[in-house]
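In the design runs reported in the main text, the only information available to the sequence generator was the tokenized backbone. The following block is the verbatim input for one such run; it is reproduced so that readers can re-run the procedure and compare outputs position by position.
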């Protein structure tokens, strides 16, 4: 007998195949589509500033310079890398550039946004301090 005032709940898996429901691969196409939209937003912002597309192509890899942070160890590297690959950083820099009327600053923000989207499309995420290969989207590279 259940004492009065006690609430009990029984839960059942919503899917007959529990592994399907908990498989992170299910969400990957959504994350890649989100990355594509983010990339498109960064590219559009860059071109909206009146800058040439070829400059966009050349500057798109510049955020990867943040990998140099790993020379200071995996924790410092993850922090430096994530600052250069986080959407908040790119949006904030673009916003400041637009607010003060500085096209180069706004362009740098647009590049960061586009690069972040490109990485998400490729399946790369923000880094965890444990290893360069550990990201918020899962481990990258071949599993051994």
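Verbatim output:
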């Amino acid at each position: 007998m259940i004492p009065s005032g006690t609430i009990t709940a029984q839960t059942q898996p919503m899917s007959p195949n529990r592994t399907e429901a908990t498989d992170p691969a299910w969400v990957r196409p959504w994350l890649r589509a989100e990355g594509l939209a983010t990339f498109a937003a960064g590219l559009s912002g860059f071109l909206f500033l009146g800058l040439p597309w070829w400059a966009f192509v050349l500057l798109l890899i510049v955020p990867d310079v943040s990998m140099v942070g790993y020379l200071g160890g995996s924790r410092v590297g993850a922090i430096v890398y994530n600052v250069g690959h986080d959407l908040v950083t790119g949006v904030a820099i673009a916003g400041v550039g637009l607010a003060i009327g500085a096209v180069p600053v706004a362009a740098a923000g647009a590049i960061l946004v586009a690069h972040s989207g490109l990485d998400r499309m490729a399946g790369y995420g923000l880094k965890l301090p444990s290893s360069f290969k550990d990201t918020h989207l899962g481990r990258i590279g071949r599993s051994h």
